[in-house]
Fold this protein.
Amino acid sequence: MKIRIVVFLLFLNSIYSNTQAQKSNEISVSFYPLFKNSVIDFNQPAFYQIGINDSIQFDLLRFYISGIQLLNDGKVMWEEQKSFHLIDANENLLSILIQPPLNISYTEIKFNLGIDSITNVSGAMGGDLDPTKGMYWTWQNGYINFKLEGKCSLCMTRNNEFQFHIGGYQFPFSSIQTINLLAEPQKNIYVDIDLRKLIELNDLVNENNIVAPSKEAVLFSNQIASVFSNRKK
Amino acid sequence: MKKSLLLLIGICFTISGFTILKEKLFYVPKDWPKPEYDFSKNPLTHDKVELGRALFYDPVLSKDNTISCNSCHSQFTAFAHVDHALSHGINNLIGNRNAPALMNLAWQKSFMWDGAINHLDMQPLAPIANEKEMASNIDSVVKKLQRTKLYPTLFLKAFGDSIITGEHTLKAISQFMLTLISSNSKYDSVMRKKATFTEQEKNGYTLFKLTCSGCHQEPLFTNQQFENNGLTIDATLNDIGRMKITLDPNDSLNFKVPSLRNIEFSYPYMHDGRFKKLTDVLNHYISGIQKSKTLSKKLEVPILLSSNEKVDIIAFLLTLTDRSFLFNTDFSYPKELLLKTN
């Protein structure tokens, strides 16, 4: 009797798995950190010229993508469950896979840059949200949504370093941002992150170290969101 | 029929077994509010609590294996740091604040004197990473634990996985801390009508309710708010309290109202441990209040107490001592685990 039940359950499971396979399609969402149209290799940091006599080097880029949705005419057609992804340029983790069903049409992808407030107050999490990933503040609770570190001759700091650890989930310093980009069914999505533009939007001479929730962090998070775009063809 | 009866008996035993186990690990004392901690995300089990207890007492959490949670949170002082105004950590470095007592943490809404920590699970990250406390980080701790003989086995037993993660490490420590319930003081016995106050304690309780309970609300003896209790600022620390977190000037010099349970043993008092005795604390409230824009509204009207009334209040405060908590062997150093070689 027991064997019959096990066989029946296996049969049901195989039908379910096949149905899922037929309905799902893997689509990659890839991120390209750029400086003047060239992709930055964070494992071999190079200096890029800015202005006439100054230079900049990027050493670290890490950020969270969460709450991925696909939309058609503003209407949510699909949303990823447990949607939290750590993008880490130094570990070459610049691409994620999503699995929307095949039979939906959509024109847009929407995601958060950062971690929502509820998750921020929900205690210890695993996977990409594990605090061992180095994206969680310790002196004050909360996820760091976006980290960018490097050196620039404009920064009159120790070793000309700049450090942006952007986070904060509570009013008035919530720094989570929403990004909407174009998308087409069954086509991979390529996202440029124009770091040159981000640097140009900022005054690195005076603002080169943001490492706590603040109005400066909120402003910087807005600027980060503005440099995400669909890959230019 | 016989089989069904045996099955029913078996089920009953299993359910009652779970109930006993659950009661032993965590319970809500009669007339206490609902805990803040969401147990559905981290259900207590005996193995996880024991793992958390080992981690709490193990200096492996610190960079040089010298400082454990217990270093600043000793059980016999209600898990506070007696004799030290400001707690000391690695390399004898002195911290910036007085280590608070640890008890009834399932009911706490936020942690640290300034509420910097929003969830019990995340609390250990702060001392682990603080350069003056353990000077490590959770990633290093996890890697170190993985290399020990002891912990992969304990994590396997507790979480069904010998691969150690930050999530499991933090949840295990929470499990132990959640069991630290203090609800069996003389005060509690009186409230349960199983004991009576002396006349002095009774008078102290009446005075307490008139003068102190605005902030130190029963049964937890804290309103869990942040208040400026009129302390003069210590120029060597310049600690602005809650404002450091919110950046809001209205929060300047606001610190979390601590519980008064086991206060007899959790000296020194205040966020910077400036008062060694309970009389010093009462004297502050009677004649030491520093007026400022953010002073707690509850302290705007002066507190007037005679010498006898101060003694009576202290007599009442001593009824908040819970010896069954201070000396509960379930909370003490797990020698059966840690005295073995890691």
